[in-house]
Amino acid sequence: MSRVVSFEGLWCVFEHRSGQLVNALHDVNFEVQPGEFVCVVGRSGHGKTTLLRVLAGLQPPTAGQIRLGEVVVEGPGADRAMVFQQDTVFPWLHVRENVEFGLRALKVDDEERESTTAHWLDAVGLTDFADSWPRELSGGMRKRVALAAAMAVGSDVILMDEPFGSLDYFTRRNLHDVLLDLWEETQKTVFFVTHDIEEALILADRVILLAEGKLVDDIPVDLPRPRDEDVRASSAAVDITKTILAHLGITEEEATQV
Amino acid sequence: MTSTDVLDVRAKALREKRRRRIASIIYIALGITLFFVAWVLLSLEASPWHYDIPPPFGAVGPFQDILQGVWGLFQGEGAIAHFWRNLGTSQDMKIKFVHACPDLHPANVNNPFRQIISSLMGWKYNADNLLPGQPSPVPIGQLPDYCYGYGIHLLVTIIRILIGAALGTIAGLAIGLSSLVFPKVAQVFTPVASFFGTAPIFIAAPFFVIWFGVEVPIMTTIGLVTFYTTLLMYFFSRRAAENIPVGIVESALTLGGTPRSIFRWVYLPGTVPEIAGGFRIALAGAWGLGVLVEVLGIQVGGGHLIDIWRFLIGQLQAPSALVALITFYGVLAVVVDGILLVLIRYLTRWSEAGRRLGL
Ligand SMILES: Nc1ncnc2c1ncn2[C@@H]1O[C@H](COP(=O)(O)OP(=O)(O)O)[C@@H](O)[C@H]1O
Ligand SMILES: [Mg+2]
Fold first, then answer.
1. Where in chain B is the domain with CATH 1.10.3720.10?
2. Which residue among A49, A58, A214 is best mutated to probe the pocket of ligand 1, counting the most ligand atoms within 8 A of its Cβ?
3. Closest chain A residue to B246 measured between Cα atoms?
4. What pLDDT, in 10s, does the model give residues B181-237?
5. What homologous superfamily does CATH list for B149-357?
6. Quick check: A16 and A52 in contact, CB under 8 A?
């Protein structure tokens, strides 16, 4: 079921009102194997969101293409469910109905829809809140709803654009565990955008580094899981951190100054 | 905190809720009292509006003499009593007006449903046929009693306005929401709506009456109310949909949302609070608009009653129930609005903001 995701000569150029042309993506080429956990890392404004939006089919590329297996991405679809940075849970639907949305759109029959929904609500630990309104939940719980909704539609690729950026540290760490459990269970391919190197080290199999829209490095993260404090303090992990910082144009002195 | 403490907190919250409910009832009672006090004051002999405004009640009971003699209060028949007495059939109208309800023909006296339909549509009877055409004056005695009552006029108005508001809401929502799916609709309709929307509808109303004529109330009352609600609901539904964050729609798309499912699960529920709020505004306007148009010359309806009473006051010194009519419409509007509020609260229970908007 899972397919290789290929980025082929991808360009995305935006023309601003001022006439200024911005290369949000600059000839990006790489391939992701099924089941990989890829973190896309880069400074703010360097094309991370654009890369994910093109993959989601929400933004047409200026040139090049993305393929899932043999299929070229041409628009949004349930095979590439996305969890957004901002709160995108439907406030007018109960938690359960939120998770059901994609299944209803796909016209899954009632019985299967109910059991699938129950499964994913359980997987993110929200079974007791199935009949709550989103406004009654905390920000972290709403992210769980979004995650369950994305998982429930059964896509083989999950896209996440700084999904936990607005959460506090402890909630974020907690959601990392939830996400990794789901990933290990489902073997889905995950694209996870972040500007937080620690987050990338906790999650990624592989870090794709973007700078000014260009893919500047593709770093395998061969660290044992779980990536606890000890693992992240190992010399291999520190080397990866240094490589990333160097690419982001931040030397160690600069990093300590900030 | 022990579980008894929790119960205590709950009881406190319940008491608070009850206290707020009692307070709101007191405010409503206070408002009603003030309304009647103002009415009584305006009807006093010292008031310049004394001739136009009868007192709400006639004096009854043990203080009758003191009230009437010393303070000059509550002279004659109260407006409410007059209104009530004339609701089913009005002797005043029977005696003084041949044309109390000329749309209603004796051939159909036993069929009130057809009569209401015909007066709604502005159809006139001629001979035995139901036809659009000129009204033929119907001699007194040939019409059933209720044709001379105030009630039939009010009923006709209420039905007209509700039909107009319902049609307009359906049309406005259909155009507004479909314009989200088909941008062409918006390109065509927005300029039209903006053009007519800029002219205040109460100013445009007399022109409608001139264009469509008073003989065809379906075009004037229903038509105007429909037109007005369509415009408002178009704007409200578009604005409501535009206020749905783009991110939410994009999220729905990446979850496999089809146009149909996004309409059903995103746009429809997401726009309900603003649309419902808009509907309340539209309906409030529709009451005024409907009655106003009838005052301008339509032969049947609550607005026509105002016309009749104006004439009564001037010519015959007969009691006017004008203020009673206003009270009637006021109570009606409050009741309908209350029902709407309950409905809106139910539909927007997911959102605090929507709840506030509904209030
Ligand atoms: N819709 C858009 N219109 C114009 N410029 C855009 C648009 N989206 C992104 N950009 C530009 O593309 C660049 C990359 O943006 P983005 O992908 O959002 O960066 P990141 O997610 O890494 O912070 C930025 O310079 C931004 O100004
Ligand atoms: Mg971004």
1. 149-357
2. A49
3. A88
4. 788 888 888 888 777 766 666 677 777 666 666 555 556 778 888 888 998 899 889
5. MetI-like (1.10.3720.10)
6. no
